[in-house]
Design brief:
alpha/beta; two-stranded antiparallel ribbon; 6-stranded mixed sheet; 11% strand
Length: 276
């Protein structure tokens, strides 16, 4: 089965979307999200793109330039948001403060803030789905990191469709590249000559994700299916784990009104620390 067929199969098997859905593709400017936007557009889905400018110097500037070029060429409507306009600060400042005050990992901080912004803006744009570029490597890393951190229950939201509970304020997130390896995505992206930046986020080096990625890559040399096995086996136990946690409904953050499992969502708790 070729690359595009695998994506079609994932969309069909897991019912990721239909032609009536309005899909917002969260485009970072990298190979994964660009590939997702290209294929969903090619397959005839109704899509628009959303880009968050993290204001991380030349890296962010180049990503924004690439996203604009790509969307203009394919005539995809693009929505660009500056993180400073939404939270008041550039991402590097947010991460540095929270690393110092709360000892939070940089990737954790960035992920929480971005997901918070994407859900809020996608809802404002009346989207029924948010598509992200997560691939098999990303999901295998997430599963392993949760176990290493002693929090496997954090994985209840993993899967081709993200969201363990349906809620009117939560836009379902779909991952069309879920069963494709990063190297497969990169090969396809280069073949299609997408305008993307292959350089990793400048903050990722030394992070737990970077170490986990290296460990899984080493294991893959001995067992080519280690990532696939890790993800597929976790999906088998995920539903039992979700039921054991007995999460029946989401709350709404008392500060911003976004879906949350606590009285105040993680993003607002972070921003509160920064403003102290």
């Amino acid at each position: 089965m070729d690359f595009e067929s695998k994506v079609k199969e994932t969309i069909k098997k897991y019912k990721l979307a239909n032609k009536k859905d309005k899909i917002i593709v969260a485009m970072s400017g990298g190979k994964d999200s660009t590939t997702v936007a290209y294929l969903l557009n090619k397959l005839g889905f109704k899509i628009e793109a959303l880009h968050i400018n993290l204001l991380m110097g030349k890296w962010s500037n180049k990503n924004l330039e690439n996203v604009r070029e790509f969307c203009k060429e394919l005539k995809i409507k693009l929505h660009v948001y500056s993180i400073r306009d939404i939270v008041g600060y550039a991402m590097c400042y947010v991460k540095s403060v929270l690393k110092e005050k709360e000892k939070l990992r940089q990737c954790t901080v960035c992920g929480i803030i971005r997901r918070w912004i994407i859900n809020k803006k996608a809802r404002e744009l009346k989207a029924t789905r948010v598509a992200t570029g997560h691939n098999l490597d990303d999901e295998a890393q997430n599963v392993l990191m949760n176990f290493i951190s002693g929090n496997p229950e954090l994985g209840i939201n993993l899967g081709p469709v993200t969201g363990s509970i349906k809620d009117k304020k939560f836009i379902l997130r779909i991952k069309p590249l879920y069963f494709l390896k990063e190297k497969e995505v990169e090969k396809y992206s280069k073949k299609m000559r997408f305008p993307v930046l292959y350089q990793r986020c400048p903050c990722v080096f030394g992070a737990l994700r970077h170490k986990t990625r290296n460990k899984l890559d080493d294991l893959e040399k001995k067992n080519p299916k280690v990532k696939e096995n890790l993800v597929k086996n976790f999906l088998k136990i995920k539903e039992k784990m979700r039921k054991s946690l007995k999460i029946k409904e989401l709350k709404y953050c008392k500060a911003c009104g976004e879906p949350s499992r606590q009285e105040m969502c993680k993003a607002c708790r972070m921003l509160k620390v920064i403003k102290k």
